[in-house]
Design brief:
363 residues; 15 helices; globular; 12 strands; alpha/beta
């Protein structure tokens, strides 16, 4: 079987990269167009479209960075059903993505990570077989992690500190707003409650070098102003700056709480049973509405594995952190995390299930 796999954003590219390996192992011919969140890595839409028109199947990652993705979808649709159209919808609410509306009447397969999105997805894609496989990236949340003792040493975590992890999203405005408000919330925890906070900003792996440098300088300035230790991490750090070379998901097991803006790291938090807050300040909230309208945000409004703060202030964030750091304040969220995102027990099982579903289209 000849298969084309395009994706523009980082997580979908990682998923399809793993799927390509598994499908090749099974003897299929696979052509990938994966940008990993970097526009300069985007392939040529015309070439991708040509490859898609000659394929048996395309599996397209639903992404924001979607120039090549949409060209491949168009080629599959214009084949009149000869080229099967599959969609990978492993990002929160990505099944509602407005850029992919035209695929809804044509898709043959939609692969989801969460059961909570299944019913709505089937309504939106009436022709498609909708399957829930989990997200292959979840394996990275659990298996092959850097030892916790090494991570704690790299981050200079001291006994008794409250480690607050904030994964960033490579959007300068949203990252700066989250950083500023979280620093203020950490200062309130220190002054009002005697907490010893340590803040970790996890850079997005798809961010550009200039964006990473801006965050490094901002973190340094904030740390000096509020006298709270702040570290910046990057899985790709080369040791030439004080950015710590560690993956964001490797930090989750050693932190006390996770504060995200729009990030899949809240899934890792759920699997490691760490309190989680989706801090959707005004700009992040507006970004979500542009993409998905007024539909509910799944982690906070459907699964309830993360506490949602929309258009909130630094004081609101401080108050919610304080609540979730108590056993009684975290109890309900912990129960929802255990139900919605049980920790994987077998490495590679999710990607094998995904490949099985792809092959079933031709049985």
């Amino acid at each position: 079987m000849r298969i084309v796999l395009p994706a523009g954003d980082f997580s979908q590219s990682k998923n399809l990269e793993e799927l390509a390996v598994e499908l090749k192992r099974r003897g299929h011919a696979v052509e990938s167009f994966l940008a990993f969140g970097k526009k300069e890595l985007l392939g040529n839409p015309e070439r991708a479209s040509e490859e898609a028109s000659q394929a048996d199947l395309v599996v397209v990652g639903i992404c924001d960075n979607n120039l090549v993705d949409l060209a491949v979808c168009k080629a599959a649709i214009e084949s009149g059903g000869r080229v099967k159209l599959g969609l990978l919808s492993t990002g929160y609410a990505s099944h509602r993505h407005e850029a992919f509306v035209e695929t809804r009447a044509h898709a043959d397969l939609v692969i989801l990570s969460e059961q909570g999105a299944c019913e709505e997805t089937q309504r939106l894609f009436p022709k498609a077989k909708v399957v829930v496989t989990g997200d292959p990236i979840w394996d990275q949340h659990v298996f092959d992690l850097q030892p916790q003792e090494e991570v704690a040493k790299l981050l200079e975590i001291e006994a008794g500190e409250c480690v607050i992890l904030a994964p960033l999203v490579r959007d300068t405005v949203r990252d700066f707003l989250l950083a500023k408000d979280l620093a203020e919330a950490a200062l309130l925890l220190k002054r009002k409650d005697g907490v010893r906070p340590r803040v970790i900003f996890g850079l997005h792996p798809g961010d550009k070098p200039e964006g990473k440098e801006k965050m490094r300088r901002l973190a340094s300035s904030l740390s000096e102003c509020i006298e709270v230790p702040i570290k910046v991490t990057d899985r790709n750090a080369d040791g030439t700056t004080d950015i710590v070379p560690v993956k964001t998901t490797d930090i989750v097991p050693v932190c006390n709480i996770v504060v995200t803006s729009i990030s899949s790291v809240d899934t890792a938090a759920a699997m490691w049973e760490k309190p989680s807050i989706a801090y959707l300040h005004w700009d992040a909230d507006e970004h979500l509405r542009k993409l998905f309208g007024d539909a509910p945000w799944q982690p906070t409004d459907v699964d309830m594995v993360s506490s949602g703060l929309r258009k909130a202030s630094a004081y609101d964030l401080y108050a919610q952190i304080k609540i979730l750091l108590t056993p009684e304040g975290y109890a309900f969220q912990k129960q929802r995390q255990e139900h919605c995102y049980p920790r994987p027990t077998e490495k590679g099982a999710i990607i094998r299930t995904m490949a099985d579903e792809v092959e079933k289209l031709f049985r």
